[in-house]
Amino acid sequence: MTGYAQVNVQIYNLWVRGYFNGTWTFGDLNCPLNVFSNPLDVQTQQYLSPAADPQYLDVDQPADPNVILNNFSWNMNSNSFAGSNTSCDVVKFLADTFASGTIKNLVHDNLVNFLKDKDSPQDETNDAPIAGALQGALQSLSIAGPIGSALGAQLDAPFNIVALDTVGITLRSNVRATSLNHPVNAPVFTGSLHINESSPSYSGNTPVNNLPYHLAIGLGSSAFNQLFKVLTEGGLLNLELNSLTSGGPQLTAGDLSGIISEFGPPIDPITPLRIVVEPSVAPVLTGNPGPNPNELVEMKLANLIIKIVNANTGSVYLSVGADVITGLALTYNQVTNSISIAIGEITANNVNATVIDNYIGTNETNLQALIPTLLTQALPSLSGGLGELPLPSILGLIPNGLEVSRQGQATSVFLNLSAP
């Protein structure tokens, strides 16, 4: 244990009732004892680490708490002893005269004994009350469930490192994503691209706007690549576009003939066409900055198959494989309290296309200018497939986005937390 969280608990207007019991010559003693402290301060050192099940955190309090009884006082009610007319005032007088400090020490020692850890760090059956309460509250500390549900994937993020310093507590996880849905035509991959990146080091303020924050969530390129893997396996890039604009009229040979003359006669201009997009591999983040402003990180799509087919018969007129370099932009959506994901701009300079099928005999060099246009039609569908990542509640508190930016090599969301 190299670092700890200082957890202090303050209780106002503490009142505890006990009984002074015993026997003497005149009978049994049973005098109510009232103890007061305002406030009671309990200072503890809590150590956090991954639990035996690393989906959760273990909290341990190895040292006894420091208990401070501020403004301590006590009194004893004047009930009578059984079988005697002598009141408890006699006992109160004797205790006040000879044992007042002893009573305070007795209360202090019993509180320490109640609040301390009574087992070993390896035995969690009898944790200190404050450590146990914190550990129970931290059971719900997970972003994997809400993000996985939003993306339609099984997302696990077991903790592997807990680091504490003067700025805050860093919880590091290894992300594991699994597909829950495999459409018939979607690919299945054996793995995702891993990028060796150093873990981000966070200061007390955001890196761009220099704002103080409560919580930062950072995802490395490898985590994103796992997400893109399962999304692609779920059919994210399997697209069929019947129009050049969202909600527009049916795409026809006449629409493309101005760009690719071979879609003119003898092909009937009203022949309905469909653009089919099929992935060969999942999109990957490289860890480099995005190629355009406002794109946080570079994204590459390799051998993305684009076909132009007859919408009635499915016959292929033209198919190409495209390698694309673009960027990924993330912004905070205040209305939905979520992170919106958008695919960046695609330009002809960042597209390399190879013709696979050319049944209409078009000039293949000229296709380089067409591919960005076709991909631009697909991008809204791709972005819509990613959707938005909801910001989950943290320990019952509501997150509010401050900034989405790069911290080191991690794409990070900076949040403040507020009561619901």
Written account of the structure:
The chain has 420 residues and is of the alpha+beta class. It is built from seven helices and 22 strands. The radius of gyration is 34 Å and the shape is rod-shaped. Residues 80-85 have low confidence and may be disordered.
Can you tag this structure with a few keywords?
single chain; 420 residues; alpha+beta; eight-stranded antiparallel beta sheet; 37% strand; rod-shaped
Helix-strand topology string: EEEEEEEHHHHEEEEEHEHEEEEEEHEEE
Proportion of strand residues = 35-45%
DSSP helix fraction: 10-25%
Mean pLDDT: 83
Please report the number of helical segments: 7
Q: In angstroms, what is the radius of gyration?
A: 34 Å
Find the structural class using helix and strand composition: alpha+beta
- Please give the alpha-carbon distance between the first and last residues: 34 Å
Largest sheet: 8 strands, antiparallel
Number of strands: 22
Query: Runs with pLDDT <50, length 5+?
Result: 80-85
Q: Please state the overall shape, judged from the principal axes of the Cα atoms.
A: rod-shaped
Question: Short description, anyone?
Answer:
The protein is α+β, with helices and mostly antiparallel strands. The chain has helices at 89-98, 100-115, 129-137, 144-151, 221-233, 253-257, 367-386; strands spanning 5-11, 14-24, 27-37, 40-50, 57-60, 66-69, 73-76, 153-156, 159-164, 169-173, 176-179, 215-219, 239-241, 273-278, 284-285, 297-310, 316-333, 338-343, 351-358, 388-390, 398-407, 410-418.
